[in-house]
TrEMBL record:
This is Neurotransmitter:Na+ symporter, NSS family. The keyword Membrane applies. NCBIfam families: Na_transp (NF037979). CDD domains: SLC6sbd_Tyt1-Like (cd10336). It is a multi-pass membrane protein.
Amino acid sequence: MSASLENRGQFGSKLGFILSAAGSAVGLGNIWKFPGKAYNNGGGSFLVIYILMVALIGTTVMLAEFTLGRKTQKNAVGALRELNAKYSWVGGLGILTGFIILCYYCQVGGWTIKYIIAYLTESTTVYADPTAYFLNMLGVNGFPLEGAIIYPLIFLGLTSFIISRGVAEGIEKLSKFLMPLLFILLLGLMIRACTLPGAGEGVAYMLHFDPSTINGNSFLVALGQAFFSLSLGMGVMITYASYLSKDDNLVTNTGVVCVLDTCVALFAGFMIIPAVFATGIDPGMGGGFAFATLAGVFMSIPGGTIFGLLFYALLFFAAITSSISILEGTVAFLVEEKGMERKKTVVYVSVVLFIIGIFYTLSQAYLPIKGVWWSLSGIEFPIFGDFMEYLTDRLLLPFGAFFTTVFVGWIWGTDNAIKEATSDGKFKFGLAPLWAFLVKFAAPVAILCIIVAGLLLGMS
Ligand code: PFF
C-alpha cells in the first residue's frame, strides 16, 4: 500500500459525513439553477416530476456510488480499477467531468463574493440598474477583472485552502458549521418571501399540478437537474464514501442526503418564485437570474438589502461546500493514483482550472465569440460557457451515471453492492430487490434517454 493510501483521511462522525455529502449536493444547482427550471417547466408539475426522478433514479445512483466508494476505500478511478480494471476509465470520465464543472463553478462562486461585498458597500449602485451592474461584472464595458479574475480567484483560493487541510479538519469541520447555518438562512428567507404582499400567486403556481404542462422534455430536464443537484455521475460520492467507516448504513445515508438536497431545492423555489411574483419582475431565467433579476427583486421589497445580503451569503456557503467536493474528487485521484503530494496537487489543479474558467466568464459578454465565429463560418457556434454547461449537464454527468449503474448492476453485481450497503445485507421494508431492479434496468434506460435526447436536441 502506498504511503498516501495509508494516510487516507476519514470522516470523524456519521453526522460529519452526512453534512459533507449534503454540502456537496446542496449548491448552486439548488439555488441558482433549480428555481428557474421549475418556473419554466410548469411550477408545481415540475416539482412532482423532479421529486419522482430523485426518488427513483437519484437515490438509486447515489447508493450505487456510495457502495463503490466504501467497499474499495478509494477514489473514483481506483475504486473501479479494484473491482474490475477494465472499467477504471468510467472513474476517469467522472473526474474529467468534475474538472470541467469546477472551471465554471468557481467563476459563479466568485460572483457570489462580489455580490456579498456589493450589498455591504454599494447596494445603491447595484439598485441603480441591476442588469447593467451584472453585465458590467461580466465585461460588457471592458475586461471583467473582478468577475473573471479577482473574485473567482478568492473563491478558488478558499476552496483550495479547505481541501489542503484534508477530510476531517477541512471538509467535515466546515460542513458541520455551514450546513445548519444554510438551512436556517434559507428557511428565514423563504418565510420572508412567501409573506410578501402578492406572493400568494407565486406559491399557488408552485403548488399547482397541471398535467397538460408535462411533456418528455420535463422529464429530461428534471433528471439532468437531479444528477447535477445530487452530485452524481462524476465519482464525487464514490470519493466521499471512501472516507466512511464500515459500520455506517449507506441506505440511510442515501435517504438523508437526497431528502436534504431536495428540501433545499424546494425551499429555494418557494423563496424565489413567490418573491418574483410579488414584485412583478420579469423572471428572465438565464444564468444571470440569481444576480440581475433577484437584485431587482431585493430592491423593491422592504428590508431588501438585508434580504439580498443573506441570500448571497447563502449562495456562497452552498457553492463552497460543493466546490470543495468536486476538487476533492480530482485531488484524491491524483494523490492516490499518480502518487502526487496533496498540497502541490491542489495548487496545480487549481491553477489550470482557474485559467480555463476565466473563459467562461469572458464568453458571457466580453469575448463576442458567437458573433465573430458566426459571421466567419455561417454556423452558429455556442457561447463557450453555455457549451460547457451543456457538455457536463446533458452529456457527461448522465454518461457517468449510466456507466456507474451498468457497472454496479451488471459487472460488480447487485448482490455484492447490497452486502456492502448495510451491515446485515438487508434493506428496510425489503427494498433490496427493488433497488436491484432500478439499478440494473430502470436507471440505465432512463439515463440513456437523456443522453440520446441531449445529443438529438443539441443545446436547444
Ligand atoms: N451538486 C452541486 C450543486 O447542486 O450545485 C454541484 C455538483 C457538486 C455537481 C459535485 C457534481 C458534483 F460532483
